Sequence to fold (445 residues):
Amino acid sequence: MPQFKHFPLPDVGEGLVEAEILTWHVQPGDTVTVNQIIVEIETAKAAVELPCPFAGVVSELLVEAGKTVDVGTPIIVIDTDPNGEAAPVNGSVEPERVPNLVGYGVKAVTAKRRARVGAPAAVPASAAVSAAVAPVTVVPTPPVVPTPPVIAPEPETAGGYVPLAKPPVRKLAKDLGIDLAALAGSGPGGVITREDVEQAVAPAAAPVAVAASRGERRVPVKGVRKATAQAMVDSAFKAPHVTEFLTIDVTPMMELRAKLKDSPEFRGVKLTPLVFAAKAMCLAARRTPDVNATWDEAANEIVYKDYVHLGVAAATPRGLVVPKVRDADQLSLRGLAEALEQLTVTARDGKTTPADMMNGTITITNVGVFGVDTGTPIINPGESAILAFGAIRDMPWVVNGQVVPRKVCQLALSFDHRVVDGQQGSQYLADVGALLADPSVAITY
Fold:
C-alpha cells in the first residue's frame, strides 16, 4: 500500500529555529527523486535550496509559499510507493526518519516556541519522535551532484506564458510588488533579470503628480532583515563602541595596484582597493591581536584567535549579509582578491550558505563603493572590531611642504572597549593606514 512520508523543515544552519518558504519547485502529482531540489527557503542567514530525501510522488504541500514555519514542522508529504493501494493522506501518514543529505541534516529541536497563528499543525510529538527510536531501514542515497541554479516555473497566465526568473529575482519582484508576467525578460532565453525588475519600479516621468496615487507600502520584517536588525541592536547596546577616524594618502597603494594589474601574476583578477585594505587588516592584526579577539560573557574570558576569518559586509536585495573569508590571513594578495570576488558574487546572487556567515573574527565594510567618505560602523556580534573603508578621492595634500593633488581615503575603526583599549585601537588603525599609505611597510611585519 502507499507509503506517505513527511519531510520536516530541517535546521540548515546552527541553531536556526524557523524559515520562510520562498518557492516550491514541485506540485502535488509530480514525481521526485532523491536529492532533487524541491523547495527554496529563506532563513535568518541565507536563501537555501533543499533537496528531497525521498523518491516518489508528491502527495501534498503542507505549507504555502510566503509562510514562515518552525524547524521540525512537516512541509511536504511524499508517497514513496505510489503504485500501492490508495489511502487517505491525512489519515495514515507513517512518520519516517529523514535521511541526512549532503549539506544538512535534521536536528532535534528542544526549544519550545509559542504557536504561530495560521501555522500548519505540527505532527503529534509521539509520531515525530517515534522514528528516532524505532529501527528504520534507510536505503543509502547516492552522493549529491552540485545542482546549478534552478529557474523555477511560475504559474501560467491565461495565454500560456510562463515568466522565467531566478529565485533572488523572484524574491525582489515579490518585495517590490512587481508582477513578473507583465515584464519582458532581457536575459538569455527571455529570463527576467534583476535589472528588468528594477526598471519596472523606476518612477516614470509625469508632468503632474496625482495626489490620489501616492500612499504607503508595508513590508514585513523577516528573514535577513529581521536577523540583521536584532543583531545590530544587540551589538550596539551590549558592546561599548568606540570609533576612531584616520585620513590617509593612498597614492602609493593605487600606483602599486595599477602596476600589479598589468603583471602576468594578476591577469584576470579583479584587484580592487578593498583587497589591499583587507590584506592590511590581516597584517596589522598580527601586531594587535586584541582586535581579532572575542569577549565571552558567560565564561568571563577574552578569547584570542590565532586565525583571521574576515567578514565582508555585502549589500544584497535581501538585506545586509556578512559572509566570511576563512583564514584570510593565510591568503596571498591574489588569493584574497579571488576569495573576495567569489564571496561578493555569491552574496549578490543570494547563494551564501549559513555556514559561510558564521564565526567571523573581524569585519570590513566598504562604504566607499557608494561614494561615502566614512561612517561609524556597528561591530558584528561576536567580534570586537569593524573597519569602514571610505571612498578614494583626488584631494589637495601637503607633500614635502608643497600642496599637491593626491589620492586620499578615510578609515573609521569601531571597536569593543571591553576588549580593545584606546591605545590598542589607535595602534591598529594607524598600522592599517601605514600599510595603505606605503605598502612597502608590509615587509617589516
Q: What stands out?
A: Confidence is low (pLDDT under 50) at residues 86-96, 102-160, 204-208. Residues 151-201+215-220 form a domain with the Dihydrolipoamide Transferase fold (CATH 4.10.320.10). The longest strand covers residues 402-416. Residues 372 and 394 are 14 Å apart (CA to CA).
